[in-house]
Amino acid sequence: MSCSCVVIQEIGEEDEVKSRSGPLKWRSERVFPIYAMGNLKLSASSKKVISDFEASADPIWDSIRAEAKSEAEKEPILSSFLYASVLAHDCLERALGFVLANRLQNPTLLAAQLMDIFDKVMMNDRGIQRSIRLDVQAFKDRDPACGSYSWALLYLKGYHSLQSYRVAHALWNQGRKVLALALQSRISEVFAVDIHPAAKIGEGILLDHGTGLVIGETAVVGNRVSLMQGITLGGTGKETGDRHPKIGHGALIGAGATILGNLSVGEGAMVAAGSLVLKDIPPHSMVAGNPAKIVGRVEEEDPSLSMKHDAAKDLFEHTIFGSAQGKVNGALHCEHKC
Fold first, then answer.
1. Cα(199)–Cα(215) distance, integer angstroms
2. Are residues 97 and 209 in the same domain?
3. Which of 187, 191, 204, 317 has its Cβ near the most Cβ atoms within 10 Å?
């Protein structure tokens, strides 16, 4: 049985997308060269839309199959694993469902049951079909340790936990909350990533490593966001209602950052590793420290795409050195006057 999957759009260099600040050059020819975000205005020379297509019209899936065949030839000991995980399936959705089910299974939550759940959700949800491709593209493009699309599908728990969350989120929205919570619990056990199924997460997301990531119930994460390990998007106590952070499109959140409360991290902002964020962050701002303070401005539209975590290093060091030098000069001036 063949798959009916997502809309594929061929992207040209002149394509633009609207943002809150007006038309911006769409950079997906570099970042998402195959799959569009859905709100593109295509140039006449590049317009090509395919709705229902065979697996051969899915370039990422074609790449994954080719990579799996090549790896099976290089490592014959993995040939059975690669056949069962990739080559035996007719589309990315079913291969992903097989991989996730076998990673999440336990004696009471059987792989066959999980495969059935994943299949029913992913094969009937075009939003998830698009997201799993945009996400795997994000891993391939932004994580230098991800050498191919198949590596993300087969080995990277950041990708696995994110796609398992997407299924749990769909189940939550269908009213199957107990099953969604059971899946969340198992995801947390296996991958050490705890994302509440009610949280809202956009497309083109990178969870780099993922270990220790916590995302609360009312958190919102925009498109093209990159999140490192050990991040907490949490509340500030026992309050109920809307109580978790909102992360804007294209933001980059460094390892170990803690962001607490119903606050906003603006589009294109960068939070340095280890920062504690307790206040709103304006768009395209760099913040660092405990508590976090603005140390500069991000020039890039989406710092999540470049992954330059040390972009604020020189500015931050200059700020600290300048502050220290000012204190020394002040002390000398005082001593001279005295």
1. 7
2. no
3. 204
